[in-house]
């Protein structure tokens, strides 16, 4: 049965064109949320006022301290895939379109309106006027064109390929790079200062959704000239907050953009993203009032926090996959029997009971259950140690095997306590005669080394950023995502063909069938062990008003304010 969540946006051209027409009737453009979710946000804002966010009850110090388990890898959003980077860059940069506050329904952003040609190949965006970058230069169509060409062309002067910059997500979302056969963006034409046209050579089912992704936000062209490849430490966007400083593995400080184009925003004067690696230490800091919001709340602590005065719990919608990935370029993980055996060795229900306090469900697809293309008919690898040992014996490992289990050093939305999870998995493997030695690295190093293929079996996950299945399949399993998000080094002509067909189709029913077939192929090849789809939880002080956690794990804080 075809599934679609309330926050999955239909991707047919007809509906996109209809939405564009609605966008044209919204005179406020990006100043307000759109659709049903926007109405909910307004209601929440009113409720927040009743609870003490009237001007008279606002705190004198409007500095929000957001604590997280790990540091950002880079502040050049398009060249990295980690959520700790996008959490910060979401405040600094903006995209042409924006998602609703708590869903993937799309609406105006830096573009207040857009048109889609009947053939689905030409998209015209009408840009907000009077918007400036943090350096005082004008946002315009030329800036849009330059940014997209920078990501598309490795030879572009601002691509910084020689300095190691890699825009893998651009490649997977738009079918490759300039000159590649599958690259769908044929031309970008500047019509005038506030009108830009994208001409595709092939239809792309997720094109409009892509335009709302934080990966494809717009950087000041003048900043590229000034900072060059150091742009990753000197971000300059149009967003509600401006970059101030970055002390590695400690804190990133942002300040209010006094010239922000959305009148009345942001409410906060500054935001500090504070690194506190240990979950318990973050919770202690929250309770003592040292911080205002913390990510990576242990699910076991949810009941206690909900019962404490002055504290609140925030839940994100399920929109992720936590998994163990096999490096298929290394023995014995090049053998499908070994991969299937280790799938049978993992007790997912025990993992969920131990770590997630019911705030997760076992995974058998890599896309979340409410996504278009989810295949509920896949026969999951049941927890069956005897079957695991049979398959290991068939593969020639009757006496067992030994490998390193690479384990994340930081809590993530899909894995709140990686070390504890690794210990549970280690016990599972030990029961079938397999020795898994837990290995970890500093977060940025972990991501770099797993992308390079140094790992054996590794723990990681993925959260959706545009509500589309292509974002998961294209980045995690497509052959073109090597090097990049495909850290399993899974290569399958059959799977790639299905991924490619799903990418370019604009018919939802057809895409649903294609991705269901792809899910079955991936299941049989078993490049990974899908572990869980979680409900990520955060905790905060009740002083924090109008904070709405987004499914993507990166939300704008422009409406947030603090009460006494």
Automatic annotation (TrEMBL):
Region spans: Disordered: 23-56
Keyword Transport attributed: yes
Composition bias type Acidic residues, residue spans: 24-53
GO CC terms in record: ATP-binding cassette (ABC) transporter complex; periplasmic space
Signal peptide bounds: 1-23
GO molecular function: peptide transmembrane transporter activity
KW Signal (keyword) present: yes
Record-level GO BP terms: peptide transport
Any Pfam family the entry gives: SBP_bac_5
Name under which the protein is recorded: ABC transporter substrate-binding protein
Upper classification of the organism: Bacteria, Bacillati, Bacillota, Bacilli, Bacillales
